[in-house]
Amino acid sequence: MLNSKNPLQPVVWMLALCVITFSSAQAALPSVTGDGQALPSLAPMLEKTAPAVVNIAIETRIRTARNPLMEDPFFRRFFNIPEQQQRERRAASAGSGVIVDAKEGYVLTNAHVVKNADSIEVTLTDGRELSAELVGTDEEVDLAVLKLESAEDLTQIAIADSTGLRVGDFVVAIGNPFGLGQTVTSGIVSALGRTGLGIEGYESFIQTDASINPGNSGGALVNLHGQLVGINTAIIAPAGGNVGIGFAIPTEMAENVMHQLIEHGEVRRGVLGVTIQDLTSELAEAFGVNRKSGVVITQVMEESAAEKAGIKSGDVVIAVDGRPVKRAADLRNKVGMAPVGEKVTLTVLRDGKKREMTAVISESTQQASSGESVSKYLQGASLRDLRKGELQHADSGVLVEDVKQGSPAWRAGLRRGDVIINANRQDVVNTAELRNAIGDKDGTLLLRVNRNGGVFFVVIR
């Protein structure tokens, strides 16, 4: 029914007419040019590729905070307050994933997408909803593998070698931004091998200006052939929205992690047994090396894979398995992605001469222990002895290898990379001394911590 008193009504009808006119014109757009040539379109590629990209919904139970007085048994007894069960609330979040094995039902996604999930539901492009089981996660690279239950008629994505990418190549991002459902954006490769962002433990990101937003995490970055070249994982968003700087984990790294997660349920990383630094112009001159990039071996551990291979301090690594090494992160990523027992060939410069040495990646003898085994206040932290020469700002102590966000250790202020050098006024050089210094697992802690060269005290109670 029309309301002649509404001054906005003519405007609404004009807008409606414009929409109808535009829709009609859009429907009339030709799919070919005047001479019969087909117009360029990504649609044919996406029709084959998009069904391999899925939406992931997770549900997590989160404990709600209670008044600290309610935790005090004397307070409850005095006021005759009965014991209460810990209250919980359910939280839901959404992300994306990529079907990498249709026969077995394996889906590759980000570890942070499924972190702490109590249940995981995957929605396919045809509307089917399937339950998924977590196979394994690797938080160092931020990848996880899921297995779909009762999966039939799935479409898997073809995986390309990301080392063939070049800056300027066209790429397409497919995912589930903001839980809207499958969305496609396009752009180019803006940069390769991005490191030092502090997002993950091992970084060699593909940077792209294809729009990536919250919810795209775990989705596919594909080339124009519809082949997977990366797993979308992060953005830089200073204003809270997309600004054209997104990052994807290249398939060179993702495939290695994926195979280990499927085979072992975890990633079994080995070590080369060296400490390294980037080659600078001053170091190049000092070592008589006519190069602008490379990695200098600063120390070789005793009985390590590097020592057995004949690598020495002062060697300059310029390639691993024939692929150029320009900086320390390149060598670290290559070794970190290699499973225990794998052979790697290092090309080094020594005394101005090029040499090739083969090292067998060995298992690390430095196993991290749970912080909870040392003190209840360190729950959520992984601790291990600091190796000599591992860090420039600390020679000895207990390295905080990882801290789970939200854990007691995290709330106490400990962060990954911190080095505990004193506990309860006793200097400590390893985890054994840390245990002795603490003694009572339930007691108050006074820790002296070295963080990037700055030393401070932390009181934990």
Summed up:
The protein is built from 9 helices and 27 strands.
Please state the structural category. Answer: alpha+beta
What would you give as the CATH superfamily of the largest domain? Trypsin-like serine proteases
CATH third-level topology of the largest domain: Thrombin, subunit H
Number of strands: 27
User: What characteristic shape results from the CA principal axes?
Assistant: globular
Helical content class: 10-25%
Mind summarizing the main beta sheet? 7 strands, antiparallel
Distance between the termini: 70 Å
Mean pLDDT figure: 81
CATH architecture of the largest domain: Beta Barrel
Domain module count? 4
Task: State Rg.
Answer: 27 Å
Strand percentage, roughly?
Answer: 25-35%
Number of distinct helices: 9
CATH class of the largest domain: Mainly Beta
Low-confidence stretches: 1-29
Describe this structure in words.
The longest helix has 19 residues, at about 10-25. The termini are far apart. The chain is globular, with a radius of gyration of 27 Å. Strands 21, 22, 23, 24, 25, 26 and 27 form a 7-stranded antiparallel sheet that branches. Strands 1-2-3-6-5-4 form a 6-stranded antiparallel β-barrel. The protein has 9 helices and 27 strands. It has helices at about 10-25, 45-50, 75-80, 250-265, 280-285, 305-310, 330-335, 410, 430-440; strands spanning about 55-65, 90-100, 105-110, 120-125, 130-140, 145-150, 170-175, 185-195, 205-210, 220, 230-235, 245-250, 270, 275-280, 295-300, 315-320, 325, 345-350, 355-360, 360-365, 370, 380-385, 400-405, 420-425, 425, 445-450, 455-460. Strand 7 (about 170-175) and strand 8 (about 185-195) form a beta hairpin. Helices cover about 15% and strands about 35% of the residues. Residues about 1-30 have low confidence and may be disordered. About 35% of the residues are buried. With about 450 residues, it is α+β, with helices and mostly antiparallel strands. The chain folds into 4 domains: about 45-150, Thrombin, subunit H (Beta Barrel); about 160-265, Beta Barrel (Thrombin, subunit H), CATH 2.40.10.10; about 270-365, Pdz3 Domain (Roll), CATH 2.30.42; about 370-460, PDZ domain (Pdz3 Domain).
